[in-house]
Each structure stands twice: as structure tokens, then as C-alpha cells.
Write a structure and sequence with these properties.
Elements: E1 8-11, H1 17-28, E2 32-37, H2 41-53, E3 58-62, H3 68-82, E4 87-90, H4 105-126, E5 135-139, H5 153-173, E6 179-185, H6 200-205, H7 215-226, E7 236-240
Helix pairs in contact: 1-2, 1-7, 3-4, 4-5
Length: about 250
């Protein structure tokens, strides 16, 4: 198990699903954890309550990280109230699905703002506080390597952009001892993509294991990269997709 005792983590979009699982897993490993939310305050506070009930330390921050000032404020609040920041987990994302002909300029702006811009802004704010051994870990998607069909143009574009972003940040921040990686989930059972949903059987058929993963599977991968196991891993993506991209 990764030992993150004494570390401080900021998990964006940590109120539910994969983000909530990551926050709880990092806290279980010993980290103090800040979670951000945009609208789901009750859910975010429930995550914090569970962390604290298990003996951990949690902080809840309302923040739209697509705004430069807000992203900086979230990092500064984490540093101020938890004593620093060692791990930034960019989990906040926006699911976009639909045919090309129905894509609007507003859709494009929203997806790129949440899935790309917010990650750049959060990394920009966190990097000056991350010392040697610091981590920036982003949650991507199996779509950056294999798109199963049409109607995913926005999602695939945004997640593919994350590949270049991760590679570039790894090169730039490597001399400071900061590791930058991505975890790419396959079909994961969450309220946004339930294992009993309309397309669930199709998605299972795209994996080598023939099954959905759990949010905890992604959380375990993030904890591994955040801990000693990730010391020599940077500028790359870890696929946690049940063999989706094989």
C-alpha cells in the first residue's frame, strides 16, 4: 500500500464517482486531502465527513477551476489550511457525447475549458508549491488511444490534448523533481456511466476482461503513482481499462 503520510493532496472534482474514490484512497494512505466541487456541495461534504470519520483530514473547496483566479485561490487555500501541497489530482471533467453536426461552439468551449484549460491553470498554480517528489496526476480516458465509434469528437479531442499536456509538463517540471502522469480509465461504473446503462454491454465487449471497472480501481492507480511506486514514472499514461486499448 502506498504510504502518503504527511503529504497533502488536492483532488479536483472530488465530490462523487472517481474523484470521491481518489480522495478517500489518498486519505486512507495517510494524506490530508482537499476536494473541490462546483455545485455538489452536499456530496463533497459527505466525502470529507467519511474521510474524517476514518481519522483523516479533509478540506472542502468550492471552485470553478476553469477561471484563473479561482484555480489559484483553491491551491492557496489548500496550502494555507493544510500546510502545503504535494499532490495535484486533476479529476474534474465534462462528458460530451453527440454527432459532429450537433456540436455547438458553446459545447467546444465548455469541454476544452473543463478538460484542458482547468488542468493547465491548476498545474500553473500548484507547481510553485510542489517540491521534489511532487506529483501532478490527471484522469484522462481510454479514448485518447482508441475511439470506438462516432459521436465522441469533443471527448476524444480533449483527452488526446491531455497526452501532449502531460508530456510537456513532465519535461518542464522534471528538473524540479515533479512527476507528471495520467491515468486513463476504461468503462468505470459511476453514475455518469453505470454498469447497467443502455450502452454498458457494448462497452464491456470492447474490453479484454469483458467487464466494467470500479472507481476504486482508478483510485488505487492514482495512489500508486502518488506514492513511492511512482518515483521514476513521469510523462506517461497508465491505462486502467480492462484491456480496452489492447
Amino acid at each position: 500500500m502506498s504510504d502518503l503520510t504527511g503529504k497533502v493532496a488536492l483532488v479536483t472534482g472530488g465530490s462523487r464517482g472517481i474523484g470521491a474514490a481518489i480522495a478517500k484512497r489518498l486519505a486512507e494512505a495517510g494524506a490530508s486531502v482537499a476536494v473541490t466541487y462546483v455545485n455538489a456541495e452536499e456530496q463533497a461534504r459527505e466525502v470529507a465527513k467519511q474521510i474524517e470519520a476514518d481519522g483523516g483530514t479533509a478540506l472542502v473547496i468550492q471552485a470553478d477551476l476553469t477561471r484563473p483566479a479561482t484555480a489559484a485561490q483553491a491551491v492557496e487555500q489548500t496550502v494555507r489550511e493544510l500546510g502545503g501541497i504535494d499532490i495535484l489530482v486533476n479529476n474534474a471533467g465534462f462528458l460530451a457525447y453527440g454527432p459532429l453536426g450537433e456540436v455547438t461552439p458553446e459545447d467546444i468551449d465548455r469541454v476544452l475549458a473543463v478538460d484542458v484549460t482547468s488542468i493547465i491553470l491548476a498545474a500553473q498554480a500548484a507547481a510553485p508549491h510542489l517540491g521534489r517528489g511532487g506529483r501532478i496526476i490527471s484522469v484522462g480516458s481510454c479514448f485518447n488511444g482508441r475511439v470506438p465509434g462516432g459521436n465522441f469528437v469533443l471527448q476524444a479531442t480533449a483527452k488526446a490534448a491531455l497526452v501532449g499536456l502531460t508530456n510537456s509538463l513532465a519535461r518542464e517540471l522534471g528538473p524540479q523533481g515533479i512527476n507528471v502522469t495520467t491515468v486513463d480509465p476504461g468503462p468505470i461504473d459511476t453514475d455518469m456511466n453505470p454498469a447497467d446503462g443502455d450502452t454498458a454491454d457494448f462497452q464491456r465487449g470492447l474490453t479484454a476482461l469483458g467487464s466494467y471497472g470500479k472507481a476504486e480501481d482508478i483510485a488505487n492507480a492514482v495512489a500508486f503513482l502518488a506514492g513511492p511506486g511512482g518515483n521514476y514514472i513521469t510523462g506517461t499514461a497508465l491505462a486502467v481499462d480492462g484491456g480496452y486499448t489492447t
